[in-house]
Specification:
With 482 residues, this protein is α/β, with parallel strands linked by helices. Strands 1-12-11-10-13-14 form a six-stranded parallel sheet, sandwiched between helices. Strands 2-7-6-5-8-9 form a six-stranded mixed sheet, with helices on both faces. The protein has a three-stranded antiparallel sheet with strand order 3-4-15. Strand 8, helix 9 and strand 9 form a beta-alpha-beta unit. The chain is globular. It starts with 16 loop residues before the first strand and ends with a helix.
C-alpha cells in the first residue's frame, strides 16, 4: 500500500486533519478545533433560520398553494408523470387523487398527497426480495419497540391521596423521511414502526420527490407495508409547516408531533414550530465516531469511517485512537477504499472537510474525549472491550466490536437510527415509543386525604399570597361544617 502523500495519479489524495491531544502541552490550534467540535450544536445558522421563518409564515397563510410554490422554488414536488415512470398502475389513480390517471388535469390533491389505497398498491408491486428485506427490518424494529411502551402507574401518597401517571398515545403524528438525491425507506421504518407500536391513530409521512419529480417505489411500498395513512409530497421547511398546520383542502390535518431526521431546513422548521407542535429533537448532519486501537483491523475501521461519511458531505467522521502508527494505517486504508467507492465525490468532501483523527494519551483520555464529543453513532473496537463500553455514557447508538457495523443498526438490528446529533446525546436518547405518547397526571383525593394536606396547602398558599388557592380548600370544609 502506498505511503501517505505518495498516492499514484487518479487516486484520492485527501488527508484527515489530525488533532494531537496526547501531549502535555496540547497544540493550541488543535485544542481550539476540538472545542469547536464539542460545542458544535444541532441548530442551523441564523440565515437559514430566517429564511425558514418566512417559508413557515407563507404556509401558515397560504396552505397547500404555498407548499406547491415552495416545492417549485426549492424542489421536492411531484411531477404529474412521476408515478407512471415508476411503474404504478394508472387505473383508478385519478379517482383516488393521484397524478398519472386518466387523461386530463389531476385532482387538486394529486400533486401533494398519495393516499393509503395507492400505497397498498405500491406494497403489492414490491420486488419479493426487497419486500422480504423490508419485512425483516420492520419485524426487528417492532420487536425492540414493543419493549418500550410505557406503563400506566398508580401511587398512594397518603391515605386518601392517589396519583395515577397515565400514558396515552398521540392521536396523530407526522414522520419526515429525507429524500431528494436518495430515498430512505429505512428512515420511514424507523419513524413509523414505533408510532404504530405506541398506538398512534393517524400517521402521515412527508417526503420530497427526487430531482426528476418522482417518488421511489420502494419507499411507497414500505409505507404501504406499514399502512401509512397518506404521504405528503414535500420536503424541507414547507413539509414541516404543512404537517404542523395541516392542509385541509387536500385532506391533511395538523399533527400532534413531528418526528424524523432531515437537513438544516427541516431542523430549522422544527425549531421554529416547537411552540405549536411537538417535535422529537433538532437534528444536525449525521455524525460518527470510532474508538479503536492497534488490536483493530485498520481496513474495517476505515470502512466504518467511510460509511459515516456516505451520509452526506457535511457528515463528520472521527477516529479517536491512542496510537499514531495505527492512525496512519487507517488513513492508508481509507485512501485505498475511496479509489473504488461509487460515491467518491461525496466521501472525499465529507472526509476532507469534516474528517478528523484525534490522538489521545491513553484509553482513559480517549474515553473522556468520546463522552465529551457525544457522537450520534459510536463504533468501539478496543481492549478491554466490554469494560470500555460500560464507561461510554454519551452516544446515541453504540456499536460494539468488529462484527457490529453502523450499517447493521441503520437497517436491520431493530435499534432505531433516528438519533441525537450536535452533542445532544449528552441529554437526549434515540427515537422510541415514548416519543409517540404523553403522560397525564390523574389525582384522586378523598375528604380524609384533603384533610391530611389541609394545613400544608393553606400555609404555603398564604406564604405565596394566593388567597384564592387557600380559599378553594377552606370553603370545602366550611360548607361541610355549616
Amino acid at each position: 500500500m502506498p505511503e501517505l502523500g505518495e498516492i499514484e495519479a487518479g487516486r484520492p489524495t485527501i488527508r484527515l486533519r489530525r488533532l494531537d491531544l496526547s501531549v502535555g502541552a496540547v497544540d493550541a490550534e488543535a485544542a481550539a478545533d476540538w472545542r469547536r467540535l464539542v460545542r458544535r450544536g444541532a441548530a442551523p445558522d441564523i440565515e437559514i433560520r430566517a429564511t425558514v421563518r418566512g417559508i413557515v409564515h407563507d404556509v401558515r397563510a397560504g396552505g397547500s398553494d404555498a407548499v406547491r410554490d415552495a416545492n417549485r422554488r426549492y424542489g421536492g414536488g411531484l411531477r404529474r408523470e412521476g408515478l407512471r415512470r415508476e411503474g404504478l398502475r394508472r387505473e383508478g389513480l385519478r379517482r383516488e387523487g393521484l397524478p398519472g390517471g386518466q387523461s386530463g388535469a389531476p385532482t387538486p390533491a394529486g400533486d401533494l398527497v398519495i393516499d393509503g389505497a395507492a400505497l397498498l398498491r405500491a406494497r403489492d408491486a414490491l420486488d419479493a426480495r426487497i419486500r422480504s428485506a423490508l419485512e425483516t427490518s420492520i419485524a426487528n424494529v417492532r420487536r425492540f419497540a414493543e419493549t418500550q411502551r410505557p406503563p400506566t402507574t398508580r401511587t398512594t401518597i397518603a391515605d386518601g391521596v392517589e396519583i395515577e401517571r397515565r400514558w396515552t398515545p398521540l392521536a396523530s403524528v407526522g414522520a419526515y423521511v429525507p429524500g431528494g438525491s436518495a430515498p430512505y425507506p429505512s428512515s420511514l421504518v424507523m419513524t413509523v414502526v414505533p408510532a404504530r407500536v405506541a398506538g398512534v391513530g393517524t400517521v402521515v409521512v412527508a417526503t420530497p420527490a427526487g430531482p426528476g419529480g418522482t417518488i421511489d417505489p420502494i419507499l411507497l411500498g414500505a409505507a404501504g407495508l406499514l399502512e401509512v395513512d397518506a404521504v405528503l409530497v414535500a420536503g424541507g421547511a414547507q413539509a414541516i409547516a404543512a404537517l404542523a398546520f395541516g392542509l385541509p383542502d387536500v385532506g391533511i390535518g395538523p399533527v400532534d408531533r413531528i418526528v424524523g431526521p432531515g437537513n438544516a431546513w427541516v431542523t430549522a422548521a422544527k425549531i421554529e414550530l416547537a411552540g405549536e407542535v411537538g417535535i422529537d429533537l433538532p437534528a444536525g448532519p449525521s455524525e460518527g465516531m470510532v474508538l479503536a486501537g492497534p488490536t483493530s483491523d485498520p481496513v474495517i475501521i476505515a470502512a466504518d469511517l467511510i460509511t459515516q461519511a456516505e451520509h452526506g458531505p457535511d457528515s463528520p467522521a472521527i477516529l479517536v485512537t491512542t496510537d499514531g502508527a495505527f492512525a496512519d494505517a487507517v488513513e492508508r486504508a481509507i485512501l485505498a477504499q475511496l479509489a473504488e467507492a461509487p460515491r467518491r465525490a461525496i466521501l472525499e468532501l465529507a472526509l476532507g472537510v469534516h474528517g478528523r483523527i484525534v490522538l489521545a494519551a491513553d484509553l482513559d483520555a480517549a474515553i473522556g474525549l468520546v463522552n465529551e464529543y457525544a457522537p450520534e453513532h459510536l463504533s468501539v473496537d478496543v481492549e478491554p472491550l466490554e469494560e470500555t463500553v460500560t464507561r461510554l455514557h454519551s452516544a446515541g447508538s453504540i456499536f460494539v466490536g468488529r462484527w457490529a457495523p453502523e450499517s447493521a443498526g441503520d437497517y436491520a438490528t431493530g435499534a432505531n437510527h433516528v438519533l441525537p446529533t450536535g452533542g445532544l446525546a449528552r441529554s437526549t436518547g434515540p427515537l422510541s415509543v415514548e416519543a409517540f405518547g404523553r403522560y397525564s397526571q390523574v389525582q384522586r383525593i378523598t375528604r380524609e386525604g384533603l384533610a391530611g394536606l389541609r394545613s400544608a396547602i393553606t400555609t404555603l398558599a398564604g406564604a405565596e399570597g394566593l388567597a384564592a388557592h387557600r380559599a378553594a380548600v377552606e370553603l370545602r370544609f366550611r360548607q361541610e361544617e355549616t
